[in-house]
Design a protein that fits this description.
mainly alpha; two-stranded antiparallel ribbon; 18 helices; 4 strands; 60% helix; 3% strand; globular
Length: 485
Amino acid sequence: MTIGDKSGRGEALALTLFIVGYPLWWSLGAGILLLPALTVIALWFLASRRRVEFPPLFGIWLVFLAMVVFSIFNLGATPPGTVESSWMDQAPGAAFRLGFYLSVSVIALWAYNLIAYGKLSVERLIVLLAYWGIVTVVGGLLGTFAGGIEFTSPVEAALPASVAQDGFVQSLVHPSLSQTMNILGYESHRPAAPWGYTNTWGNMCAMTVAWLTVVAMTRGTKSGGPTPTWSRLRPWAWVALALAMIPIVYSLNRGLWLGLAVMALVVAVKLLWAGRVVAILSIMAIGVLAGAVVLLSPMRTVISDRIDNPHSDEGRSFASETAVDLTVEHSPLIGFGSTRKTLGSGDSIAIGPTADCPRCGARTLGGNGQLWQLIFAHGFLGLAAYLGFILAVLWRFRHDHSPVGIAGAAVMVFSVVSMLFYNALVMPLFALLLSYVVLAARERLVAETRTRSDATPQQRPPPRPTRTSLQHHRPEFRDIGEKNE
């Protein structure tokens, strides 16, 4: 397979429309509900191929998907200390998770094939992810300063009232710019748009801002200068990065703060490994400037107050410990197939939700972070496959010190750190897999270029003047630099 055939680029239109139009789909109440339709399109085009190209390490991810399927056989189990439920009671939640695990996996595989068959360029996919970064920052600003705005979407209006009023359904179909919570002793708006939950917003913020940084700090291509799309987006990328600190701080999202710090460390290590001292100094200067802005603004007080008010730590600790203990004792290999509700809280089984404390008692086991959900729902075999995939990706692309490789590594490391606090389904996992596709496709493009350059004139295929062939369209990242090519 030679990458670079530009015929039939319209095949990528559905993926582009989904990503670019996501704010609109969210406002209509569709959002992630359009993913199954996109999956059908992806399957249609994959089935039309004589050969489907698989990115490296995808087999490990398939093992994880197999563990998700296998764990469903334990759905009927009721672990001690949890609310009694049947297999049918747990089936909707399990079907939701399995369905979207499969959905984002199929679309990611399709995206890789779009690049492999020349329908989509690596650069365009990076631009789309960076665009999501801008969307996330804009949504965060709106959630911070106009967080009280919410409205009934067309999809929500079309649903029966009994269904539309369900809390989980509300998170899918009821657009709201923020989640209003009392964490600091008063009600505060924590940005959520357009991702549903404030934790999901934080998860998406870190991963997409990584690609936003690539667009902002690089200059496109060697031949002919930057591509038009890249050039148009670059100024907006800088504006978004400059404003991102505001919703990041006011989100009160400690997991996001920690994750961004770890990502910065990953970038520094990768740049140091590549010998890019000037780039390291530049990033340090940006970090010092950002820190000064925080310290000299009201954001300093927000951070201080959040650290002094841990809020949910006790409940999270109880849910996490209970999830691990029950899994180890009763189903260590495959877990229980889905989440469960506890009887009461860590203090007493008699404690339950009230009007004043709707989240008291009845903690969701597996609902307070991807790590705990993997352990409880899919066992330690599922956790090993999931973590094994991410760690294998990090190892595979460890020598890629280009901005793409650095951003991809930062995203992968963040996904591991955020497992302690955030659940990955649905959109964060989608962004993670698309980041993996970028890394894998870029490696393939570089390998193809080297093969062509090493071949004798008689062995070389005729040149293809296409936008995606690195022979004529090789990304050049002089602002951050790349040493491995």
